[in-house]
Specification:
Strand content: 5-15%
Shape: globular
Largest sheet: 3 strands, parallel
Number of strands: 5
Distance between the termini: 32 Å
Strand order of the largest sheet: 1-2-3
Helix content: 40-55%
């Protein structure tokens, strides 16, 4: 049985893009292998965040996971910070990755370029080290990620080769699992930019009410034409809405184009809004029930116990290989 591992960082409000790219697919993964799914709260510390925001976002993600259809009896759901092996593994792995490699990571370059050079934290620079530890601690075969994280998984693969060549068969070789359709849901107000938790007009947040969701979709930027077809270069707004509809209905882009052959833009947008609301509204209702009844608390406790057991096995394996004594 293959092992699948993925996590979400509790920074900012989750969007429809997060739902389509990650949450919607998770219930399928739990029937494909052994799943470890976590809230990456240690990763959230790499940039300044208010304690209350981190706490609330972590609870929200736990509830979103469960509302998306994850079955606690089939998966292991846990907080990253509840498993001390993540921090210990990162300390070990940092000695086998090089500063040149880390400085070439696209995410680090993008985020650090917007910051004062003297205020860039070590955690942001070493983010891929902690992520590699997340992956390797559970002998993950597949790591579902967004396209912006593929480079980090590739770095992890390089690390596995390096350590296995030196110490023998220590780690399993993971691979990134990337879903091309719906991987990049764009902003409704600027379809040249990814929906990214920071554009109130262009982002559909998972906690937006139905009226707000419909208003945002009906106000989505399109173009001066009238044909509904997928053309990212010339019709990015229409292409984005087609992608959203196709993902909501679990059909291909080509099938979605056929559905809207001859439609006017206004009617097309209404159908997209209907498709989103049809799925997101019951999802929101499940989220509210889970959160109000604190159904996530026991799930996280039990998940931490299972994750600690598995991660300690792998941690002990690498410690023995590199010569660290057992207490």
């Amino acid at each position: 049985m293959k092992t699948i591992l993925t996590g979400i960082k509790p920074t900012g409000k989750l969007t429809l893009g997060n739902y389509i790219g990650v949450l919607k697919r998770l219930k399928d993964f739990q029937n494909q292998g052994e799943c470890y799914i976590f809230i990456a709260d240690l990763h959230a510390l790499t940039l300044p965040i208010e304690p209350s925001e981190l706490n609330e976002n972590s609870i929200d993600i736990a509830c979103f996971y469960l509302a998306a259809g994850l079955d606690p009896n089939k998966i292991t759901l846990f907080l990253q910070s509840s498993v001390s092996a993540h921090a210990e593994m990162a300390i070990i792995l940092q000695n086998y990755l090089y500063m040149g490699e880390l400085s070439r990571m696209t995410q680090f370059k993008d985020k650090s370029s917007k910051m004062n050079k003297n205020s860039i934290g070590l955690g942001l620079f070493a983010y891929p080290v902690l992520m590699a530890g997340d992956i390797l601690l559970y002998d993950a075969d597949e790591v579902p990620v967004g396209e912006d994280q593929i480079q980090h998984v590739e770095l992890t693969r390089d690390l596995v080769k390096r350590i296995n060549n030196r110490y023998g068969d220590v780690f399993k070789m993971p691979s990134a699992k990337f879903n091309k359709v719906g991987a990049r849901i764009m902003s409704l107000s600027d379809p040249s930019k990814k929906m990214s938790k920071s554009d109130p007009k262009g982002d559909i947040f998972l906690k937006d009410d139905v009226k707000t969701i419909r208003k945002k979709i009906m106000s989505a930027v399109t173009d001066s034409g009238c044909e509904i077809k997928y053309d990212e270069e010339n019709k990015p707004g229409i292409s984005n809405l087609l992608t959203i509809y196709a993902c909501m209905k679990n059909i291909s882009i080509e099938e979605a184009e056929k559905v809207f052959n001859g439609y006017r833009y206004g009617d097309f947008k209404k159908c997209v809004a209907d498709a989103v609301i049809e799925e997101i509204e019951p999802f929101q209702q499940r989220y509210i029930e889970i959160k109000e009844n604190k159904l996530y608390e026991d799930v996280l406790r039990q998940g931490a116990l299972k994750a600690n057991k598995k991660s300690q096995e792998v941690l002990n394996r690498i410690k023995e290989k590199i010569g660290l004594l057992k207490a």
